[in-house]
Amino acid sequence: QVQLVESGGGLAQAGGSLRLSCVASGSSFRRLAMGWFRQAPGQEREFVAALSTSGSKISYADSVEGRFTISRDNAKNTAYLQMNSLKPEDTAVYYCAAAIASFLSVYNTTGQYDTWGQGTQVTVSS
Fold first, then answer.
1. What's the farthest any 2 CA atoms get from each other in the chain?
2. pLDDT, tens only, 73-99
3. DSSP one-letter string for 101-126
4. Distance (Å, rounded) from C-alpha 29 to C-alpha 36?
5. What is the C-alpha to C-alpha distance for residues 74 and 112, in angstroms, rounded to an integer?
6. 76 in the Ramachandran plot: left (φ > 0), alpha (ψ -120 to 50) or beta?
7. Is 44 exposed, middle or buried (0-12, 13-18, 19+ CB in 10 A)?
8. At a CB cut-off of 8 Å and minimum separation 6, what does 56 contact?
9. Rounded to 5 degrees, what are φ and ψ at 69?
10. Structure confidence at residue 42 (pLDDT)
């Protein structure tokens, strides 16, 4: 049973940066495709970024492309989301997600993941 714990959320000004971390336990991290999603109040959970088990294949939502960077450190069982040039519309609860996957699989829909973290709040002020 995989467990995910996010950290790193908080308050940032528009144009600022935050770095989210997601630590996985309970399963071989190297077998997990990882993803980040976010959910603003009254809205559906939406895809942000995802990467394959080795990190060699990556996908981003258009809204964050060029501003956010997803990465992983398999030695630390941790996935990251570096968020730069933050905008007020990035305000949401951010969730990391995991799924056992084949080598180059990248998943960008919620239904493809079976394990979720508890979420971390990101608030961007204008």
1. 41
2. 999 999 999 999 999 999 999 999 999
3. --TT----SGGG--EE---EEEEEE-
4. 15
5. 21
6. alpha
7. exposed
8. 104
9. -135, 125
10. 95
Contacts of residue 100, defined as CB under 8 A and 6 or more positions apart, other chains included, come to 27, 31, 32, 33
pLDDT in tens, 14-57: 999 999 999 999 878 999 999 999 999 999 999 999 999 999 99
The pLDDT of residue 102 is: 87
Q: List, as own/partner pairs, every contact residues 46-53 make where C-beta atoms lie below 8 angstroms and the sequence separation is at least 24, other chains included.
A: 47/108, 47/109, 47/110, 48/81, 48/94, 49/81, 50/106, 50/107, 50/108, 51/79, 51/106, 52/101, 52/103, 52/104, 52/105, 52/106, 53/101, 53/102, 53/103, 53/105
Looking at residue 22, its amino acid is C
